[in-house]
Each structure stands twice: as C-alpha cells, then as structure tokens.
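User: I've been trying to design a sequence by hand for this structure and keep getting stuck. Would you show me what you'd pick, starting by listing the structure so we're on the same page?

Assistant: Good idea, let's start from the same input. This is the structure you sent:
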C-alpha cells in the first residue's frame, strides 16, 4: 500500500491523499476491505473516489494487445487511454464508434461509465461497442463477460462504475471512416426555439450533433447558442494523431476566473463569431470531439474550490420548457456556467444495466464551487429534473441526494446484487448505501456528504492536502 497526493476527480472539490493498492492486495483481502479500480480521474465527482479504502490505478503497464484492421476489433488493457487507441487506429482508417468529450479517459473507465458522445441518436452509448471483457472479482477467478457469456455480469459492469470487479482487458468494435476529420455544419440560433425547431432534421441527416448554449442570455435571447453538426469527411485529408496539449494551466489559480463577468463577455464573443447562416467547413477531429483536451489542466481555472458539473436527461415532450427552467434557475441563483451543452439522446438501448442516456435531451452545466450556495442551486436544478421525469448522470455528480439517485436509477438494486463485496466507492456510500435494501442494511450517514467542503477533506488517516 502507498499514499499518493493525486488521484483526484476532475471536479477537484475533494482533495485528499488517497491510499493506493494493487489487484494482488484486493484478492488477498476479505469482504468489506474496500477497493476501487481507478482510471484517469476524469469523472467529475466521487464515483472514482474511495477515501475510506484504497484505489487501484489501472494505467501502469497498460497496453494495446491487438488490432485487426480487417474486422476493426481491438483488444486492450483497461488502463489504456482512448487517445492511445485513436493513435493506433486512425492511420488504419478507423475511429471509435462512440467518443466522449475527452480522449483522456481509460478504456475501462469508458465501459464502467458507459460514456456517450455526440452521436447517441444513431449509435447509442459506448457499451454497444464492447464485444467482451475479462473481469477479475474477489474470488480470484477472471471471467470472460459478453452478451452470451456471463451476460448478467456483462450488463452490470457496463455503466456499473467499477463496482462489479476489475476489468483487465476488453475487446471493442471500431468503425471504418473515410477520414477522422469532420465535415462540420455550423449555425447560430437566436433563441432556444431555434435549436428545438431544427434538431430533429439535423439528427436525421448527420452522424454527430451538439449545441453550445449561452446560459446567461435573457429576454428575447434566452437560450441562444450555436448548433454544430458533422460527419466524417470524404475529403477530410490527413488527420493529426493525438498529441499533448500545447497550452496548460500550470497551477491552481487563487480565484475563479470563470465568473459571470468574464463568461458574459466570452459568450457574447463566441455567439458573435458563429455564422448566422449554415456554414460548412472541414475541421480537425480533435477540435470537434475534444476541444478542451487542447488545454492541459483546464479545470484549474475554476480556482481552489474546484467545480461541479450538473448533467441531466429529461423526456422530449416538455424538453423546451425544462431546458429554459434549468437555465433560468442557475441565473436566479447567481451562477454562471462556462460549458453549457445541449444534446439529443436517441432510443438506441444500451446493453448496460445502469446506463445514463435514455430518450430525450441532455443538458450539461459547469459551475465553480462556491460552497453551500452552489449546492443549494444544484438541489434546485435536481428538483426541476425530477419533476420532468428525468435523471442525473452519476459519474458527473458528487452531491445528489439518495432519493434523486433512486429516482434516476430505480433498478440500482440490480447493480447492488452484482457488486463485488470488496469493492466500494464514495458515490455508492453516499447514495445507494443510504437507501433501504442495500446489502447490510442502511449505512450510517457519511461525513463525505458535507456540502460546504471548501475544496478539502480528510481520509481515514486524517491526512490533509495543502490548499
């Protein structure tokens, strides 16, 4: 066992020295000892935290084991980054079927969170690309899991947030593309109606679509934004391979620079830059899929307290009104969202038991952590989502109430039944373990739920990270 000062989630709300372990220690320990596989820490909340136990880093020594350019099937260790996979397959004319907003996610993390991308309306979530994986559980038996072999464990692990065991290797299906680069259509809309009036036709004719929303705009401009749709370009030319970011935020800024004043100016410039009529251009794939990967450690811009991300999904029937209510709620509470993204989810069903995407629309908002007032706003956003019959994304969360989790995932007990008794996370303690019928009964309320954390916390050994 060792103690490391890093291994934090991307939100950086809780920064402690986390104890690390190995798969060998996991197998040698008994039920309840508390381990958790750890990828690259790109989950925003505490689903990748295990501050009362140990995390097991999966990246060291991870490698791509094989790639068949005829079939597009790749096999790799769970700790391999998606950027490493793209570096291997792009020269062969392939691309990920589903890619999230960052390529700095491990393969195991993409499976465990069943991540989604800009083409859910066509291809569903990442789990649909998974052919099989090898899962190591506490009994020491590596099990091959697929839709045909150990199917229940296969379904529980996809979207299971690492709670069913350690994914050792996985086989995924890649898709052949004419170019990794994207033929992008860009158009701004002056009100949220412009997005909802156009999106069905856009999704019917494009592989990818996403909209940036000006969360601070009011009046006749409420919900204005920029719609971007794209397809892999037939004439896209050579594609750059993944590379380290040219720019980086070298240290945590003493204050949050992404505040209402700066974001109001940025939003005006970004909206004004976008063309008023549909404009088509060839854009590099990295800028289309992973724009923030170009800036290393961009989460440090939110200052010493870190950030919260709120991602919800809600039914299509009342989506316009729900979206407007969420935007207005954040403004009413005096919060500005730097990255406000609206996408449409389709009806493609995930093989995962606990997949977040479902038919409807998903809105993502990023907020600087201002303590209790931020948590109060997030609770108010939850209430809007709950009233609309929606759900919250668990791997973006670090404060939702247990009741909100149960409303979002009423089948969570199916995952609990498949959870390895020696695997635990702060998220599961904070949500499922406070609900009835959890293995062992209702757990005692954890101090990890303190909403006014001010960016610091203690672990079992009461070791602090300097702020």
């Amino acid at each position: 066992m060792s103690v490391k000062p890093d291994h934090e989630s991307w939100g950086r709300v809780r920064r402690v020295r986390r104890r690390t372990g190995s798969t060998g220690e996991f197998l040698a320990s008994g039920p309840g000892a508390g381990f958790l596989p750890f990828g690259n820490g790109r989950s925003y909340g505490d689903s990748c935290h295990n501050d009362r136990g140990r995390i097991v880093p999966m990246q060291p020594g991870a490698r791509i084991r094989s790639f068949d350019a005829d079939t597009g099937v790749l096999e790799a260790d769970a700790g391999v980054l998606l950027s490493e996979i793209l570096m291997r397959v792009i020269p062969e004319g392939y691309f990920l079927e589903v890619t999230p907003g960052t390529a700095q996610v491990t393969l195991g993390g993409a499976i465990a969170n069943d991540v989604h991308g800009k083409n859910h309306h066509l291809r569903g979530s990442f789990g649909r690309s998974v052919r099989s994986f090898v899962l190591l559980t506490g009994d020491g038996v590596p099990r091959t899991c697929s839709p045909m072999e150990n199917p229940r464990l296969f379904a529980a692990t996809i979207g299971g947030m690492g709670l069913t065991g350690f994914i050792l290797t996985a086989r995924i299906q890649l898709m052949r593309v004419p170019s990794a680069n994207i033929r992008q259509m860009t158009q701004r809309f002056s009100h949220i109606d412009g997005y909802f009036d156009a999106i069905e036709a856009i999704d019917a004719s494009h592989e990818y679509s996403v909209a940036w929303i000006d969360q601070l705009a009011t009046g006749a401009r409420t919900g204005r934004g920029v719609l971007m749709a794209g397809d892999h370009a037939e004439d896209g030319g050579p594609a750059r391979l993944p590379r380290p970011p040219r720019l980086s935020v070298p240290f945590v800024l003493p204050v949050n620079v992404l505040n209402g004043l700066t974001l109001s100016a940025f939003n005006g410039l970004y909206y004004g830059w976008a063309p008023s009529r549909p404009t088509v251009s060839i854009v590099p794939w990295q800028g289309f899929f992973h724009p923030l990967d170009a800036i290393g450690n961009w989460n440090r811009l939110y200052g010493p307290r870190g950030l919260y991300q709120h991602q919800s999904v809600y039914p299509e029937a009342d989506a316009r009104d729900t979206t407007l209510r969420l935007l207005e709620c954040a403004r009413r509470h005096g919060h500005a969202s730097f990255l406000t993204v609206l996408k449409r989810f389709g009806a493609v069903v995930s093989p995962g038991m606990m997949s977040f995407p479902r038919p409807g629309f998903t809105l993502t908002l990023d907020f600087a952590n201002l303590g209790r007032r931020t948590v109060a706003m997030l609770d108010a956003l939850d209430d809007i989502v709950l009233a609309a019959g929606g759900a919250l994304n668990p791997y973006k969360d670090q404060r939702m109430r247990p009741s909100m989790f149960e409303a979002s995932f009423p089948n969570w007990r199916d995952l609990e039944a498949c959870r390895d008794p020696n695997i635990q996370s702060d998220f599961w303690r904070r949500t499922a373990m406070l609900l009835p019928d959890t293995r062992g009964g209702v757990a005692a309320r954890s101090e990890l739920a303190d909403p006014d954390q001010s960016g610091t916390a203690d672990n079992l050994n009461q070791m602090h990270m300097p702020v």
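That's my pick for every position. To get oriented when you compare it with your attempt: The CA atoms of residues 156 and 415 lie 6 Å apart. Residues 2-58+407-449 form one domain.
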